[in-house]
Amino acid sequence: MNASDPIGFFDSGWGGLSILKTARRMLPNENFIYVADCGYAPYGDRSHNFIVNRARTIASFLFDRTHAKALVVACNTATAEAIDTLRQERPHEIIVGIEPAIKPAVAISKNKRIGMIATNRTAHSERYLKLLRRFGKEAHILSEGCPGLMNCVEAGEFDSPKTRALLHRFLDPMIQDEIDTLVLGCTHYPFLSETIQSIVGPSVTIYEPSEAVCRHLKDRLQSANAINTQAQKGSEYFFVSGLNEQRKSVALRLWGKTTPFENLD
Ligand code: DGL
Fold first, then answer.
1. What is the 3-state secondary structure (H, E, C) of the chain?
2. Which CATH number fits domain 102-207: 1.25.40.10, 3.40.50.1860, 2.60.40.10, 3.80.10.10?
3. Which residues line ligand 1 (CB under 6 A)?
4. pLDDT digits (tens, 9 = 90+) for 165-189
5. Whole-prediction pTM value?
6. Ligand 1 atom nearest 44 alpha carbon
7. 131 C-alpha to center of ligand 1: Å?
8. Which residues of the chain carry a pLDDT beneath 70?
C-alpha cells in the first residue's frame, strides 16, 4: 500500500456523497474514487446474496483495479449485509463501514425516545438488531424501514410533494411518539435533512454519522502510516453503473463541482 494510492468509496447510488463530502473536508489531500452502483439500486429492496455479490464485485474493482489503500462502504445497507464477508475475504485491508448511530443518539437524547429511519434491509438486519441490543436498551427506539425514500434523492426530488408525503408517512408516528432525536440510518437521507427538519420541527435533533465515520477512517490511515501528505488538494473520480445524463446531473447538484465520470459495467 502506498500513501499516494486513492481511497475507494461505494454506495448503491449518490447517498454515499454525504460521507464523501465530509471526507473531503477532513482529508483534503487524499484522492478519492467513488463508485455509485445506480444500475443495481436500490439495495434496500434486494436480497442478502445480491448485496454481498455487488459489494464483492465493487471491492474487487476498487482494491484490485484502482489499487485503493482503503475502502469505505458508504452505505448502511451494504455494511449491514456485506461488510463481514468483505473483511473475512480481505483481512489485511482497511475496510470502514457505516451503521445507524444508536450509541450517540442514546447519549444525546434527553427523553430517551429516539427514531431511526433506514432501508427495510438495514432496519431488519441482524447487525442492526445486535446494535439495538447492545446500545439501545435504555431507550425507546422506533425503527422504520423507508422504501422509496432513496429514490427521491436519486431523482433529485429533495422537497417535492411526493417526497414530503413519504416522509410524513414514516415520521408522523415518530412525532406522535414524542421522539427528541432522529437517526438517519441511510446515507441518502442527509440530502433530505432540511425537509425532514421542517417536518419533525426544531425540537428534534437529527443525527447523521459522517463525521464519526471519517474520523475513524482517518485514525485507521494514521495507524497504517498511510495518510497522503502531497502538497496539492486531492482529486475525485466517479465510476457509475448505468451512467446517464439524469444521474450525472443529480450527482453534480449534490457534489457541487465538476468531476470526471466514467461508466462502470
Ligand atoms: N444509501 C444506502 C444506505 O445507506 C442504501 C439505499 C438503497 O440502495 O436502498 O443504506
1. CCCCCCEEEEECCCCCHHHHHHHHHHCCCCCEEEEECHHHCCHHHCCHHHHHHHHHHHHHHHHHHCCCCEEEECCHHHHHHHHHHHHHHCCCCEEECCCCCHHHHHHHCCCCEEEEEECHHHHCCHHHHHHHHHHCCCCEEEEEECCCHHHHHHCCCCCCHHHHHHHHHHHHHHHHCCCCEEEECCCCHHHHHHHHHHHHCCCCEEECCHHHHHHHHHHHHHHCCCCCCCCCCCCEEEEECCCCHHHHHHHHHHHCCCCCEEECC
2. 3.40.50.1860
3. 11-12, 15, 41-44, 75-77, 119, 122, 150, 186-188
4. 999 999 999 999 999 999 999 999 9
5. 0.97
6. 9
7. 18
8. none
